[in-house]
Amino acid sequence: MDTPVQIIDQTITPRQLKGFVGFSNLPRQVHNKSIKKGFQFTVMVVGESGLGKSTLINTLFNTSIYPNKEPKEPTNETPKTVDIQTITADIEENGVKLKLTIIDTPGFGDYINNENSWQPILENIEARFDAYLEQENRVNRKRLIDTRVHACVYFIPPTGHSLRPIDIEFMTRLHHRVNLIPVIAKSDILSDEEIKSFKSRILEDIAYHNIQIYQPPIYDNDDAETIQENKDIILSMPFCVVGSDKPFKVGNKNVRGRKYPWGIIEVDNPEHCDFVKLRQMLIRTHMEELKEYTNEVLYEKYRSQKLISSEVANSNDTLNPLSQLDEERRKHELKMKKMEAEMKAVFDQKVHEKETKLKQSEDDLLAKYKEMKEKLEMDRINLQERRRQAERGGRPGTPEKKGRKFFK
Amino acid sequence: MEQGQQSPVVVQQQNPENKKITLTGYVGFDTITRQIEKKLVKRGFTLNLMVVGQSGLGKSTMVNTLFAAHLLDNKATQKASDPIRQTTEINTITHVIEENGVRLRLSITDTPGFGDQINNENCWESIIKYIKDQYATYLRKELTPNRDRRIADTRIHAVLYFIAPTGHSLKPIDIIVLKKLSDICNVIPVIAKADSLTLEERAAFKKRIKEELAFNNIVLFPYDDVDTDDYSVTEADRAEKALNQEMRDLIPFAVVGSERNVVVDGKAVRGRKTRWGSINIEDETHCEFSQLRNFLTRTHLQDLIETTGIVHYETFRTKQLVALKESTMSHSR
Fold this sequence. Notes:
The complex is a heterodimer of chains A (408) and B (333).
Chain A lengths: L25 H12 L1 E8 L6 H8 L24 E9 L2 E9 L14 H18 L14 E6 L8 H10 L5 E5 L7 H17 L15 H13 L2 E2 L6 E4 L2 E8 L2 E4 L8 H11 L1 H23 L11 H72 L16
Helix pairs in contact in A: 7-8
Chain B lengths: L31 H12 L1 E8 L6 H8 L24 E9 L2 E9 L14 H19 L14 E6 L8 H13 L2 E5 L7 H17 L19 H16 L2 E2 L6 E4 L2 E8 L2 E4 L8 H11 L1 H32 L1
Parallel strand pairs in B: 1-3, 1-4, 4-5, 5-6
Antiparallel strand pairs in B: 2-3, 7-8, 8-9
Helix pairs in contact in B: 7-8
GO biological process, one term (chain B): sporulation
Organism (chain B): Anaeromyces robustus
Family (chain B): Belongs to the TRAFAC class TrmE-Era-EngA-EngB-Septin-like GTPase superfamily. Septin GTPase family.
C-alpha cells in the first residue's frame, strides 16, 4: 500500500530500448582513454621528524620511494626553516600508469620556535594553485599539468592525550586549501583503550576548533558493501597507522611488520592497525574522489577568492580572458618600467657620488701638487741664494763642499 | 696565667713507616656503621626528583611505576575547551613512603607545559630558576647565624629527562636543555615509550644520542672523579667504578611504564597488553625499566644525594659567595 511517491519530471520521459545500442560501452571508452593518458596523484606528508612518514609512504606504495635515512654527523649548524622536498615516481600496475608525487616537509615542528612553520607549506600549496590557474587562463590550454596537492596526510604523535597546539594551528591554517587526512603515527605504542580514547579526544578537538578533515562521501546508489566500507572508514578516522617495509615470517607466511621481543605487529592486518583502511581510502577507492574534491571545491574556492581580490574583477559578469591578459601584460610592463626607472635612478646616483668623490680627490691632488711645486720653488730659490753666497767668498767655517764642482 | 708561659706546642708525630697496626683485642668501634644506620633510619631520607619532558611521554606513569604507588595524576583528564598552558609550570608533590622500617620522603616535581607550545624558546627558564632557587634557599639557611640543626633539603637530587622515541636523533630543544641542566644538577636521560622501537632501532638511537651528547660536551651522572682522591683504590672502589661504567654505557635507559598488570606465563606482572603481544616491564629483554629502578633506588640513591651536595651545590655556593664578596667590596669603596 505504501508505494513510494516518485516525482517524475515531465520533460524527461524514460524509454525502453528495443535493441542493443551500445552506449553502455562508454565507461570502457573512458577507461581506455584514461589508461593511455595515465594518472597523476600528489600527496603531501607533514609531521615532525621521526614519526615514520617516509616509511609509511614506502609501505603504502610498496616500493622504496624514500631511501633509508642515513644518520648524519652531529653538527652545530641547524637549518632554520621548513624545507619542501618533492619526489616524483612513475609506477605501473596492470598496465595503469601512475605519476605519483610526494611532497615532504622536513623540519616541520622540529625547531625550538615553530611559529609560522606552516607558512612555507601553505605558500607551496597556493603556488601550485596559482600555477594551475595561470595554465587555465592561457590561450593554449592543451597540455595542463596538474601539480596541485590532492591530499595532505598529517602525522599526529602518539601521545595518547590530545592534539597539541602546533597540530591545531597547522590544521586550522590548511584545512580550507587541501584535503586533510590526520593519522596517528607509530600507533603500535598505544593499547586498544588508549587508541579509542585518543581518537575520540582528537575528534573532539577537531570539532571544537572547527577543523574540516576529509570525509569520504557516501553515495546513495552505491552497493551495500561499498556503503558499509565507507562508513567503516569514516568511523575509524583518524587512522592509527604503523609503517614497515621489512618482511617477517609469521607462521608460514611472509608479512610486513615490526618485530619486537614480545611479538610481531603485522602492518597489513586490520586487527593490528588501520593501515589497510588508509591505503584503501587513499589509493583503492578514494583517489579519484580526492582529486575531484580538490578540483571542484578547494581549487574553485581559491580561484574565486584570488580573482575577487585582484583589481581586475571589479565586475563579475564579463571577464574576457584576452582583455585580462592584456591588462596583466600592461601591468607587468608598467612594473618593469618602474623597476627599470628605479634601478636607473640608483645607478645615476651612484655614478654621481663616484664622480664627486673623484673630483674631490682630483682637487686634493691638484692642491697638493701646487703646494709641492711652491715648496720646490722655495727650495730652489734658497739653494740659489746659498750658491750666490758661496760664490761670493767662503764663509768662515764653511768647509769645501763636495759636489760643488759643477758650480764652478 | 703566668706571664711567660708559652702556649702549648703541638707536635704531630707521624707513624714513620705507615706500619699497619694490629689490634690485640676486640675494641668494638666497628659497630659505628650500625649506630649510624640506626640514626639515619630514625631520621629518614629525602629524595627530590624532577621529571622533565614534553607532555604525552609518560612521565607521570613512569614515576608511579618506579615507586610502585600512585603518586601523580596524569593529564588525560582535560577537556578540549580547557585553555592550553602558556608557560612551563612547576608542581611539586611530596609523599612519605616506607619500606622495611626505612622512611623515604619523596618529592616529585613535575613540569607540565614544557616543550608543548609552538614557540618553545626559554621554556626551560622556569625549570632552571626553580633548581637554583632551591640551592639559594639552602645557602641562605646555611648562612644565617641561628641555623636549624637539620636544614630541610629541597634541592633537586636528580632530573629525569624524557626523550621522545623518534629513533633518529635528539631534538634541538633536548640538546639545549640537557646542557643547561647537566651544569647545575644530576641529569638522567631516559628514552620514553621505548616500546615503539625495535631492538635494532633502540641500539642505533642510543648510539646516536651518545654521539650527540659527546659532541656537545654534556657530562651526565654518574661522574667519575668524585671520591677517588680521598680513599686508596680498593676492591670495592674498582667494583664501583665498573658499575658506574656499566651504567654509563646503558644511559639513556629505554623505559616503558605501566601501572596496570598483565598476565604473562600465568603470573600477573606490570606491563602493557597489545593485540600482538604483551610487554613485561620487569623483563630486561623487553625494556630497561628494572635497570633504571635499580640504578635510582637500589645502587645509586645515596650517590645522587651526595653528589648534589658536594658537587652541584658547592659550585653554586662558590659562585654565589664570590659574587657576594665582589658586590660587598664594590659597595665599600
